[in-house]
Design goal:
Layout (H helix, E strand, L loop, with lengths): L1 H18 L8 H19 L5 H7 L8 H20 L4 H24 L11 H21 L2
Helix pairs in contact: 1-2, 2-4, 2-6, 3-4, 4-5, 5-6
InterPro entries: DoxX
Keywords: Membrane, Transmembrane, Transmembrane helix
Protein name: DoxX family protein
Length: 148
Amino acid sequence: MAVFLTLVLGSAVARGIGLLGVDYLDSWPKAIAVGLAAMFVMTGVAHFVDPLRRDMIAIVPPALPAPAALVTVTGVLELAGAAGLLYPPTRVAAAVCLLVLMLAMFPANVYAARMPSPPKSMTSKLSVRTAEEAVYLAAAVIVAVGGS
């Protein structure tokens, strides 16, 4: 829920600042880019901080090799994507890349939701995870289509 609230509140605050005359935030897609960036900083940092890192490693599907390395790589990609969202020349490309990354990582969420004893931080139902993912993907699409 904290990730969802970061996206929503970050976007709303950014748009409010835009309405006060800050050109950098003069549209919803630009404000949503800031909300997404805040969200991906939060989730990217979580890839490196226990106990969340340990929990993320635990939900990597067993068919994938080197779970710790995958968590590290995805964390770096999330942080790089967040930076890309904030730099106007790379904003659209970053949104598209993060959209692809979210789709690639979603199977770990499905796996976590189906685990008999998922890590404490990964206990939400698959329906909730899917609905949140749809919001995150929609935000990335909005930025990709209108964020230039």
